Amino acid sequence: MDAQGRGRDEGIDPADQWVLNPDTGDYELRLTPSPGRSSASAGTPDARTPGPRRRPSPEKAPPGDRATVPGQRGGRRGSGGGRGDRDDKRKPGSRAAAPATGRRKAKPKKSRKKKALVWSGGVLAFLLVGTGTAGYLVYQHFNANITAVSTDGAGTGGFSKDRAINVLVIGTDKRTGEGNEGYGDAGSVGHADTNILFHVSKDRTNATALSIPRDLITDIPNCPTTLENGEKKDIPPTSGGRFNASLGQSDRTPSCTMRTVTELTGLEVDHFMVADFNAVKSLTTAVGGVDVCLAKDIDDKDSHLKLSQGEHTLQGEQALAFLRTRHSVGFGSDLSRIEIQQQFLGSLMRKLKSNDTLTSPTKMWSLAEAATKALTVDDKIADINQLRKLGMELASVDPKNITFTTVPVLDNPDDKATVILDQSKAPQVFSMMREDVSFTAVEKQEKAAAKAKNDAKLKGAKADPADVRVDVYNGGAPAGSAQGALDWLQNEQGVLKSTNKANAPEKVKKTQLVYAPNQADQARSLAAMMGLSASALKPTTTDAGEMDPMVLTLGPDFTEAGSPLSAPGKTPDGVQRVEADKAVCAK
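User: That's the sequence. What structure does it adopt?
Assistant: Structure tokens below.
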């Protein structure tokens, strides 16, 4: 405590001290020193002397030497009022009664609000100081609950405050746990049954939760994997398989699902969290149930869910059955189930941010207990402090600016039980997420100004295609992309001074064009042809020689020549989406 709090600041009588009145239970301000003590030392030990503060005995103080402040329990002078409270004696118009000769004025009563603040501050201080050991034990308790799995180098290595965050949430269909054997395949190894890539923008104003259908036909890349016994294994790639086989099948771990997501979307994943059936039941119970709305009666023979039309609060077994339901909603497909899962998660977010949850120590403890026990996380966040920091970043986004959407897909013409990417829409959705474009109406003046500044790079004179010189590299695009881009540039755009340089020395996160200041007109021309965004243009600081080419490196965002690489300014028509703050009834 500083000198002011000890009663030692200039102009303040050092004899002032707070003592407990045993008759009222209130702390009171003593205005004179106790008998036998000097005014220089009364009420508190010397600032240089270690040891607890001592108070003179209330029984020895003469009557009338105290000014009572009702309600000041659990705090001493300075714990809420400080210097401002003492200033009342010097202000004209003070409502305190005039003191007797030689005594200072009694302090006026504090407002109910201030008394509450002082009390709360005192309790908080007590908890912080008095429960250090308990706090450490709580930390150890929650840490011991956490189960972690290696990322095997698949992630970014950790989230950062200065960039966007991508967290992959995986729901497995593993039937372990009491009461779960009745859900379908009791012997499932735990596939990637429910998959949501949660993308939080760099400025934390908005987020997109992208659902990836389990039955999407995609390529699963080579997956270096750490097995449960610690053995290292390279699991070979597969082409044209279901997305859900990226986990569980052939000993694949969540790190392989991370790699598959990056391969599919071009977005690097920072972390993953895996939830099984027990996680759904325990988390929904801990929060006191999740509110859902049904537009019709549901009687699903597979999930065993039977509910009437209207509103319900679901937890435990019922909540799990709701998330497993598909035959009684929508078209009866997995895509219909994704929609009610999104509605459910939106309601869960609203419940988590409600005062009923945030102000309930019991619920907060239960949630922390359930989450740390039920979720499997990657080894980069296998610590309660890291999870807390990540949670604070994710929770900073208002639910009204969180959009749930689904990867645009089409029915597979070769297999009606699976789906394939809608190539006219899916690349645009992935591009919006990579470029941090909000799916909601969130707009900030700063972002608009930054966009205008970037767009200015694309304005100005453009070179004739015949005068554009460029070397094309493949820096992470699909195989053959450099040659495909070269053919398109030469045959369809007239950029004859272009060369295929094969693979780039290093991979890039997204397509970029490096050019010199005196090549700006060429860069604008090539950007217009290819649909490059302003952020893809990387100017150098020195001019290039007359015969020097620009360098175009194709990244994972490049799909095919002629397909624009810049993100659309709004969600493409026909893309399913719902905001987290909207209560939607399952149909």
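The longest strand covers residues 192-200.
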